[in-house]
Amino acid sequence: MTKRATLADIARKVGVSESTVSRALAGSELISDDTRLRIARVAEQLGYQLPVLARSVRGAKTQVVAHLTDTPTLEFHARLAQGLHEAALRHNHLLVTHPSPPDGFREEQYLQILSALAPVGVVATPTTSNLSLIQTLAQKFPLVTLDRDVEVGLHAVLLDNKQAMRQGIEHLVELGHTRIALLVGKDPMTVSFERRQGYLDSLRALHLPIDPSLMVREEFTEAGGYRAARDLLDNRLECPFTAMIATNGDMTLGMMRAVKDVGLKVPQDLSIVGFDDSRYHLLMDPPLTVITQPAYEMGEHAANLLFDHLDHPEVHTARVRRMPASLVLRKSTSFVR
């Protein structure tokens, strides 16, 4: 009977301690990329299996689901992961979450590290920087995309982005706003296009004029939101508007900082609608009205979609689930004065 490889075997061959091997295989950022790669290669050569893969939970074999996520800077990402994690546990699987590899991290390095986990499947959030990696992962593992679509025939759980924007626009129009500024991402991912299109479709449906100067495309980051908002606010006399809406959580933070820096009062001078909810929005002055995504449920559905795919591998048709957004009304919007 062949002896199963151990952490000690890997440690001896690489020339590091067992604790270093353990941390590397768990994805610890305390271990350098070079060391992690060497350990992953040796683990694969020796046929090492993580202990969790052989552990029994209520009589069933526990296996790993890998979760490749965008940088988890906001509560939205944490709620996605929570929904995934709890759904995975109900299927006796362990979720291992890892951020997208940094710039300069070679794709083959990441694939070797991921392969050492031997996941039964992957749930991934596509970005412009990891799109090639995700397309490669889809050829190696059952894969579901979460939050963003790559339009290459993969299973996906997404927000209904057009419906989300429609809720925000209709709310502002009900308050008498007809000049509504938009902060939207400029990356080529479908989420940016769909939220911009939702804004345009809503204005057309409400028979309101479309002014291209009120739409600013920027990075989907706090800094991008700040730049976009300042561009609009600094030109407000030449191109007036009474309300502003952001299209992701990071941009919302930048937008609020810009409004504060120019000294405008919300909602007296300007009505504001943010995107994605956070407990910190309740602490803002005034508390922020937001379009919120059902993050936990999106993560939960992504996990269930993956397990359904694993149970029925003969079904090749991609399934896409779009989840509705909700509008949380607080104090940052008011009737036009």
UniProtKB/TrEMBL annotation:
UniProt keyword terms in alphabetical order: DNA-binding, Repressor, Transcription, Transcription regulation
Domain of life: Bacteria
SMART domains named in the record: HTH_LACI (SM00354)
InterPro entries: HTH_LacI (IPR000843), LacI/GalR-like_sensor (IPR046335), Lambda_DNA-bd_dom_sf (IPR010982), Peripla_BP_I (IPR028082)
Pfam family, one: LacI
SUPFAM superfamilies: lambda repressor-like DNA-binding domains, Periplasmic binding protein-like I
Domain HTH lacI-type residues, every copy: 5-59
Protein name (Swiss-Prot/TrEMBL): LacI family transcriptional regulator
Source taxonomy: Bacteria, Thermotogati, Deinococcota, Deinococci, Deinococcales
